[in-house]
């Protein structure tokens, strides 16, 4: 019996300050259709999919607010048709957006939409917000103000099961074929376990481990990654880079953390970029990819524009690593890990006498 | 002022069941001299440096015991001259060995030897022991019996400061040039912070993070890594590999975890293999390397025999990452990490109704 799901990542080319949300959603619909035409059962879209990467700008509250979504995406006039189409195609979707809660809090959020239930099954709010609360003093610097515009996510790294993807034919999914009882689902290894992270989270092994400890089989990660950004690249001032060098290095770093964390957690990883030159000035890397539990890249985008990639992911491959070298129960030694939760920053040993 | 230290990794070619410990130490002395001739201030030797990788064998207690060291390496007849020579050359050394304590416990251990104090500054006992307690049922299988022959390390992941390496000239170190007071040392960024892990530990991000949270600037990792080993490779039975494919994959995995964990912790990594064909049958990978805090390989061995590599490591490079994207104090969110210390194995979400 096949335990394979066909997964797609839909990379978006640049959005701009002048881009209309309706036009972005039209592009996303085209990518959704393309993914469905390949038989994809799930499509991942990027972080902050509907807008330009606005945390690079210093914005007044009035300028900021239009970048946020304020209601239910499934019924919002701009996005309702997108999810209805996903339902019609029987394709699950995950995407990122700036969330404004009724209480006025802002989060960098991803949701998982299930076509078979036509509902948002799970929501993740980005925990590792990069950058600074305050704008950089240099007026020419590229800011990274996620810590100013968003609060750290308050929903944890929470894995969840999704129906109607596994244990069915690789034809477009049809909820009438989903087994009904838990024992039936379990026998078919139905209800695969997914987890979401966003962008900078992928550089933090804690995020991956928390999801893997819940049995996550596929981690989804949308991102917007600046090719050149000293804060992000950790670039030494002693070794200035050209823009091309910095972009190449950012792509290397991105793949390094995706591949290694997939391997060290024996999990599939799917990542989707918003890529290309935004607002005429800001280069975002591509490199959207689908990676297997050994860290091998199964598919990767070739452009920095709108582009769909797909791969067949046999969820049984997760089990091999987790029953051998990465059998957590047999090998992890939690008594030695106290510092990881016991302290946030660095505490150095004292100097020698 | 230079905060650069010249670090060497001394890869060892194979040892055999028939190898005499004296001959192995002679080879190590030659590598030590070679490293010193390059101006190295520190040399890392492999895990279980003196012996063949005996945990692959099912051994009686009588057969097992000769692989262990039973006394103080600095005064043992076999190894005393090695450390005296390191002292004479003013080169610090780290190496791995099978430790039998006076109480009869067995550990897979590394020590850090300081030439300026002629003492063992720090000891690490391997925490992530791979493999199984019991031999595999298949008589043709390659066993991995570290869990049988060793107990999990009980000294934690403990970073330590070493004197006489930083803030001095790059000539062979001379303890008389080491500043005496803490403030002098601090001003010169003296007393660099080191940490040790062993082999399989490098695949566990928890090990790296515990060391990085103590400000570790260089992580040392000796290893013996079988090219083909289903337990280690987590190989899917659906995708059998040739021996050559398996060895290539093992090298890829090794570098992936070394480079990514250096990057995600903004730390230098130095790793030294015991490599080559042991006992005529068991192929160990090479790939001894020195890696910078961006994950870039500065030096790597080209053979699977005795071979020294050196690199200049500017410890200031650690600071850039840790003050930017990997500024733990600013970015880590320990409130979201409870599962990492709260549970050992996987706990899956329930099946859907």
Automatic annotation (TrEMBL), chains A, B:
Example of a GO MF term: hydrolase activity, acting on carbon-nitrogen (but not peptide) bonds, in linear amides
CN hydrolase domain mapped to chain residues: 5-315
InterPro entries found in the cross-reference section: Aliph_Amidase/BUP, C-N_Hydrolase, C-N_Hydrolase_sf
Chaperone in keyword set: no
Keyword set includes Coiled coil: no
Keywords: Hydrolase
Protein name: CN hydrolase domain-containing protein
Organism: Exophiala bonariae
């Amino acid at each position: 019996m096949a335990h394979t799901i066909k997964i797609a990542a839909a990379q978006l080319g640049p959005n701009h300050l002048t881009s209309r949300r309706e036009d972005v959603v039209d592009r996303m619909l085209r990518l959704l259709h393309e993914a469905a035409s390949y038989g994809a059962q799930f499509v991942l879209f990027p972080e902050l999919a509907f807008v330009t990467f606005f945390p690079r700008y210093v914005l007044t509250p009035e300028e900021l607010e239009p970048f946020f979504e304020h209601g239910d995406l499934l019924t919002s006039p701009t996005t309702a048709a997108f999810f209805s189409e996903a339902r019609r195609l029987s394709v699950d979707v995950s995407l990122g957006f700036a969330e404004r809660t009724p209480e006025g809090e802002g989060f960098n959020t991803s949701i998982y939409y299930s076509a078979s239930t036509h509902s948002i099954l799970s929501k993740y709010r980005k925990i590792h917000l990069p950058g600074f609360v305050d704008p950089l003093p240099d007026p020419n610097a590229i800011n990274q103000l996620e810590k100013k515009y968003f609060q750290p996510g308050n929903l944890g790294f929470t894995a969840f099961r999704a129906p109607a993807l596994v244990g069915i034919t690789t034809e477009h999914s049809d909820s009438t074929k989903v087994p009904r009882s838990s024992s039936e689902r379990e026998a078919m290894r139905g209800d695969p376990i997914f987890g979401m992270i966003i962008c900078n989270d992928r550089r933090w092994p804690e995020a991956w481990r928390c999801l893997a400890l819940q049995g996550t089989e596929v981690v989804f990660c949308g991102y917007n990654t600046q090719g050149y950004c000293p804060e992000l690249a950790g670039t030494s001032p002693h070794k200035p880079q050209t823009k091309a060098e910095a972009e190449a290095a950012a792509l290397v770093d991105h793949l390094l953390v995706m591949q290694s964390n997939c391997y060290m957690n024996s999990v599939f990883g799917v990542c989707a970029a918003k890529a290309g030159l935004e607002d005429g000035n800001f280069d975002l890397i591509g490199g959207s990819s689908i990676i297997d539990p050994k860290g091998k890249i199964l598919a990767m985008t070739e452009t920095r524009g709108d582009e769909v990639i797909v791969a067949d992911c046999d969820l049984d491959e997760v089990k091999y690593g987790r029953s051998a070298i990465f059998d957590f129960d047999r090998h992890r030694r939690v008594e030695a890990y106290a510092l990881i939760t016991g302290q946030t920053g660095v505490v150095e040993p004292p100097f020698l006498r």
